[in-house]
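Hi all, posting the design record for the shared folder.

TITLE: backbone redesign
STEP: 1 of 1
STRUCTURE INPUT:
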């Protein structure tokens, strides 16, 4: 075989081998790309994007939720409101579908208000579905339009309030009463003399109060101003209505120095403003500057610092943990 032929064969072999290497390389690259693409399609990021969520929202979901929660999210119809609810501090996972449904029917409410109302059951009609109040919870016993005491309930350790601190004959749970005396003495240093106008009421007392308001003002107004028997905070022995010597009506107490002092200091002694202004949709009651409730210093401080109602505290920190 001559030299020219040998060179030609060698060149063809080299070309053939090079072509083979290129082919193998291309196939390998394609295979790797296919595997990588397949793997990416199995990721939660890809699934969320395919579900219709934006890249930004997807990244937030991946940061906030665990794998199981994302899988649950992917089962649901895509909804842009889901992320804003999840990002709210008092979001409760089991309530998500109810948040979405309530928002659809009430678009005027903010995501915070929707979460608060659903958590405390205020998306339901007053007294529509009631549960028994857990009387074993002591100072954090909840009584409202959704939680009820039976007609035979009487708080333990009721003690009579000295007429030095009240009008008429009043009773309170001793721990709450002792805390009130401490608060009373501190308020005196600011020339504020707190006077209890109404504290513990029995079921029968509350029934009389409610019916009187109903006869006088009608059912609608009575429901906003007073609880039905079994549903009143006064039946716990942990709450009271308070005035001062110069502010003896519910109309003017909100403008008093006493009210301003209580708002800034009551939590230090374990008391909270039970029905604050602007929270009517959550508490179910009109603003009552004069109505205060004992829950203990730790809980009162948390409620004060987070600027939430007792209903919200109970729903998120107690009921949600059970």
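Okay, here is what came back for every position:
SEQUENCE:
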């Amino acid at each position: 075989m001559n030299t020219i032929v040998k060179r030609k064969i060698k060149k063809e072999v080299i070309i053939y081998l090079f072509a083979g290497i290129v082919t193998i390389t291309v196939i390998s690259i394609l295979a790797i790309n296919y595997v990588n693409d397949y793997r990416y399609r199995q990721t939660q990021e890809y699934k969320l994007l395919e579900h219709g969520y934006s890249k930004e929202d997807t990244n937030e979901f991946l940061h906030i939720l665990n794998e199981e929660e994302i899988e649950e999210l992917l089962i649901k119809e895509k909804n842009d409101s889901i992320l804003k609810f999840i990002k709210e501090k008092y979001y409760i996972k089991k309530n998500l579908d109810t948040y979405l449904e309530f928002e659809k029917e009430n678009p005027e409410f903010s995501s915070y208000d929707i979460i608060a109302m659903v958590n405390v059951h205020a998306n339901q009609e007053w007294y529509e579905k009631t549960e028994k109040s857990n009387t074993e919870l002591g100072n954090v016993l909840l009584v409202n339009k959704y939680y009820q005491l039976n007609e035979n309930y009487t708080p333990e350790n009721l003690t009579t309030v000295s007429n030095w601190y009240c009008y008429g004959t009043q009773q309170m749970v001793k721990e709450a009463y002792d805390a009130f005396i401490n608060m009373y003495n501190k308020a005196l240093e600011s020339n504020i003399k707190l006077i209890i106008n109404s504290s513990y009421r029995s079921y029968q007392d509350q029934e009389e109060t409610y019916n009187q308001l109903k006869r006088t003002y009608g059912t609608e107004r009575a429901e906003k101003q007073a609880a039905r028997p079994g549903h009143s905070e006064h039946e716990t022995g942990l709450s009271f209505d308070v005035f001062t010597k110069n502010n003896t009506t519910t109309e003017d107490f909100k403008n008093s120095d006493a009210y301003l002092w209580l708002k800034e200091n009551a939590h230090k002694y374990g008391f909270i403003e039970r029905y604050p202004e602007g929270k009517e949709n959550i508490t179910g009651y009109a603003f009552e500057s004069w109505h205060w409730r004992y829950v203990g210093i730790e809980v009162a401080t948390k409620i004060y610092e987070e600027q939430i109602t007792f209903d919200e505290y109970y729903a998120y920190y107690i009921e949600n943990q059970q």
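COMMENT: The chain has 15 helices and eight strands.
Let me know if anyone wants the other runs.
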